[in-house]
Write a structure and sequence with these properties.
693 residues; six-stranded mixed sheet; alpha+beta; 28 strands; 25% strand
């Protein structure tokens, strides 16, 4: 019994669920139909409003019509059905739902309705038969979902209609300004609105800022049915009223007013009749400008360079360490002035009303700009880029001209040092650095000793002479003294720079070395003189043959003859050069022997006589004859060449005799020098014996 009752209740619940879903569908469809019609009317009224711009009373009437329409439709499509169903008995309503289920399912038909009605009978004639009948129907419908019988086609239809109407309305609202304005007016139906003009104006330039003295273009954009001419009104703080400027319409549906050389800020707006733009302002800035720029260029004190004054030019080329003083004058009172270098470092300048000054030291190449700010924080525009280039203090130079790269210590223990020095700004110190090397010791790492040489450090280019006394150095024979000079400039900015000379060697000679060297020089000189004498004889023979060849009637000499004459003169020149070399070597040897006190008075006199003889060999007559010969050769004059050749032959004969006398005198000197050597060796032995006692 309870089982049939529960199945009955389950079936009734399914019917109630179906009834509920059906009512929801009916309500939704009715609402969609109502809203679709209402939105269509509102869309139509909005279109009419956008075209005719109704008054508030007309718009109010339209809204009343919409409201009444909404109420009527809501009653017809929703309220009427609701009232009817409310009046019906709940059981009667469920019977109608059961009937609809029987219609949807062919195997059920009226069985469900009949069985439910029989179950509701209070005095059934055959209860078991009724329950069996219901059980059969229940078995048929237990797996059915009654909500499947609901037809949603009308719901989908009116949903689509409502969506289309809503979409069209939204598109028009956002794309058409007139439509959106009309919508707003309909919503605010009781408010009176002013009918818009047939055109509108917009100040594209708006609020803007320009530099004093520049031009400004006021650009007014229009839309709608534009007039050919509008007015632009401007007013400065000194004007009592706005000034009117008429401006014509251009091809771009806009108006443009160009105002030249603006000096003061002003306000402006544009309009025609009652149509006008908002009011805007043009702000005028007056940035500071560098009126004058002067620089004091102060070189480092050590350079002794004068201070330079430079006007209206910020580019500087100066010595490293130079100080630049800036003096700047501006067109306005300043609040700040700085110098920005290319490496982004800044130097602040001291401000005094419209002037600024300061300084900075040059330590490398850089570029810089000057930045000014006035009391209103206006800054100078597009500052000029200036460049600073440094001049580097060069290293000093030193060339030792005496003694030679390798020389012997004189007998008086004094070495005469001569050096040429030069610097661009002056010197600070000069040192002689030396190291004594004992050939019998293997240690070569001894440190250089140092002597300072006093000289005129302010003189930029000079020759320095210094007599180096070896008497206190305790050196012995065969010792070697290595030395060099090191000079420092006076650069106190980057630090003094130094330059070293080459290393020179001074050797302490033995007596044997001195005499052996002298003997070698004499033997070499004698051999060279003998060779020169032989070549002179050969040249004499060539000159004789050449004189005979030139004894012809032709006035001009030919190229073959000219070549032979030139060869002969060149040989003469070569002989003279060889004589010069011999003389120089002998002179050098004589001075060295004299410095070491190795020559007797008699030998010295013979050397002096030898030098005079060699000077006579290179006499001016021979040189004059060679010069004349060269001129005659250029003229190709046979007679003159022949005469010059005869003079050359005579000089050549004297040349041979001089060489012969020189050779004889040199041999005599060699004998005398041997005697001097014996004497000196004897004296040395006596000194050594005395030192042993």
């Amino acid at each position: 019994m309870n089982n049939i009752e529960s199945k009955k209740n389950y079936t009734l619940e399914k019917l109630k669920e179906l009834q509920k879903k059906e009512w929801q569908k009916t309500f939704t469809v009715g609402l969609l139909k109502t809203l679709s019609v209402l939105l269509s009317f509102f869309f139509l009224f909005t279109l009419l409003e956008s075209v005719f711009f109704f008054s508030a009373s007309v718009r109010t009437g339209l809204i009343i019509v919409l409201t009444i329409t909404f109420i009527i439709l809501l009653f017809l499509w929703f309220g009427k059905s609701f009232i009817n169903s409310y009046k019906k008995d709940q059981t009667l309503q469920l019977n109608e739902v059961a009937k609809e289920v029987g219609k949807y399912y062919p195997d059920v038909k009226d069985n469900l309705l009949n069985s439910l009605q029989l179950l509701e009978d209070k005095n059934p004639s055959s209860k078991n038969l009724i329950e069996a009948s219901f059980q059969k129907v229940y078995n048929q419908i237990s797996n059915y979902n009654f909500t499947d019988i609901i037809d949603y086609s009308s719901f989908r239809k009116f949903t689509k209609i409502f969506s289309i109407i809503t979409f069209v309305f939204i598109i028009n609202f956002f794309l058409l300004s007139n439509f959106s304005s009309a919508t707003s007016r309909l919503i605010n139906f009781s408010t009176e609105f002013i009918k818009p003009a047939t055109f509108s104006l917009e100040a594209i330039t708006g609020n803007t800022t320009i530099k004093k003295g520049n031009n400004v273009l006021l650009h007014i954009k229009g839309s709608g049915k534009l007039p050919n001419i509008i007015d632009v009104f401007t007013k400065t703080k000194y004007d009592s009223e706005f000034n009117k400027h008429s401006v014509k319409l251009d091809s771009n549906n806009s108006y443009a007013l160009n105002i030249n050389s603006v000096k003061l800020p002003f306000r402006y707006f544009a309009g025609s009749g009652k149509i006008r733009t908002k009011e805007f302002s043009v702000n005028v800035i007056d940035p500071p400008i560098i009126n004058s720029l002067s620089l004091d260029i102060i070189p480092p004190k050590y350079s002794n360079l004068p201070i330079e004054h430079q006007g209206d030019n910020g580019n500087v080329t100066a010595l490293l360490g130079t100080i630049i003083k800036f003096n700047i004058s501006s067109t306005k009172e300043l609040s700040k002035a700085i110098i920005i270098k290319s490496n982004t470092t800044t130097t602040s300048l001291k401000v005094n009303i419209s002037n600024a000054n300061g300084s900075m030291r040059i330590r490398k190449n850089f570029s810089y700009t000057i930045h000014l700010s006035d009391k209103d924080s206006n800054k100078n525009e597009s500052p000029i880029i200036y460049f600073v280039k440094t001049i580097t203090d060069k290293h000093p130079t030193i060339i030792v001209t005496s003694p030679e790269k390798s020389s012997l210590l004189p007998n008086n223990d004094i070495v005469n040092i001569a050096a040429k020095v030069e610097d661009d700004f002056g010197f600070s110190k000069l040192y002689l650095l030396y190291k004594i090397v004992n050939p019998e010791q293997t240690d070569t790492n001894a440190q250089f000793n140092q002597n300072e040489i006093v000289f005129d450090a302010a003189k930029l280019k000079q020759e320095i002479f210094y007599n180096w006394n070896f008497s206190k150095l305790l050196v012995r024979e065969k010792y070697v003294i290595n030395f060099y000079l090191e000079i420092f400039d006076n650069d106190n900015i980057s630090g003094p720079k130094s330059t070293k000379s080459e290393i020179f060697k001074i050797r302490i000679p033995t007596l044997n070395e001195l005499f052996l060297q002298a003997e070698q020089t004499q033997n070499e000189a004698a051999k060279n003189l003998e060779d020169i004498f032989k070549e002179a004889k050969d040249l004499q023979k060539d000159l004789g043959e050449l004189k005979n060849e030139l004894k012809r009637n032709e006035k001009k000499i030919d190229w073959n003859e000219k070549e032979k004459v030139e060869n002969s003169t060149e040989k003469f020149k070569e002989l003279n050069k060889k004589i010069d070399n011999v003389q120089k070597n002998l002179d050098k040897m004589q001075k060295q022997m004299e410095q070491n006190d190795l020559l007797s008075k008699e030998t010295m006199e013979l050397y002096d006589e030898l030098q005079k003889l060699m000077d006579e060999i290179n006499n001016s007559d021979l040189k004059k004859t060679l010069e004349q010969m060269q001129k005659s050769m250029q003229q190709m004059d046979r007679d003159k060449v022949q005469k010059n050749l005869e003079d050359l032959a005579m000089n050549e004969e004297a040349f041979q005799k001089s060489i012969e006398r020189t050779l004889n005198l040199l041999k005599k000197i060699q004998i005398e020098q041997k005697i001097d050597e014996v004497i000196k060796r004897t004296e040395k032995i006596e000194d050594e014996l005395n030192s042993l006692q």
